[in-house]
Design a protein that fits this description.
two-stranded antiparallel sheet; isoprene biosynthesis; 26% strand; EC 2.7.7.60
Length: 224
């Protein structure tokens, strides 16, 4: 069992959520979304560190309202950057030297079964890099000018999720290269390292819009 340091990016602007407030504060079963994300990892015996990456504008509220909880869970707060990549770069220097794997999980994904985490941790320990992902089930269309340009073969298409878990040296190398990507796995790919897919579940939803909260609540109940 490898020692894992977990980074929970929570510094996004939540522009698509449309409420003017960070979606991580939305209540899910009477607890903020990010609290669920913290609890997914903080009590695991293989997790030796949890870093919660927050926006500077949210720090005071998080400390005032949830500081005691975070202290009790051993969580360290890190100030994020202007985008996800900068937030992860800010967190990497805080990763303990004892970490054998670094796990990055969206703080806006509150629904995970322990066995899904087990599987992606095991795959990363074996292969060096692994992510949860779900096979695409819907028909995909490529558009051009508002018209269908082609139907895309979905047989080998997967939708990336988190956790995304990596050897520390691979992840640090990938971020040091300074590339741009929409997720951490893409940067590790660009650095020349293979990333293994671990079959996930559609219930592992990233809360992006208000209706997602109700879906996440229903998904959470199926795991209880």
């Amino acid at each position: 069992m490898a020692n894992v340091s977990v980074i929970l990016p929570a510094a996004g602007a939540s522009a698509r959520f449309g409420t003017g407030r960070n979606k991580i504060f939305e209540l899910l079963d009477d607890q903020p979304v990010f609290v669920h994300a913290v609890r997914l990892f903080s009590q695991r015996p293989d997790v030796i560190q949890v870093l919660l990456v927050v926006a500077e504008s949210d720090r005071d509220e998080i400390i005032a309202c949830h500081g005691a909880f975070l202290d009790g869970e051993g969580v360290t707060i890190v100030i994020g950057g202007t985008d996800r990549s900068e937030s992860i770069r800010n967190a990497l220097p805080h990763v303990t030297g004892n970490a054998e794997l670094i796990c990055i999980h969206d703080a806006a994904r509150p629904v995970l079964a322990p066995e899904w985490i087990d599987a992606v941790f095991a795959a990363a320990e074996e292969h060096g890099a692994a992510i949860l992902a779900s096979a695409v089930r819907e028909t995909l269309k490529r558009s051009a000018g508002g018209l269908i340009a082609e139907t895309v073969d979905r047989s080998d298409m997967w939708q990336a999720q988190t956790p995304q878990v990596f050897r520390p040296d691979w992840l640090i190398e990938a971020y040091a290269a300074g590339g741009s990507a929409t997720d951490d796995a893409a940067l590790v790919e660009q650095a020349g390292h293979p990333v293994h897919l671990v079959a996930g579940d559609a219930r592992n939803i990233k809360i992006t819009t208000p209706p997602d909260v109700a879906f996440a609540a229903a998904a959470l109940r199926t795991l209880q």
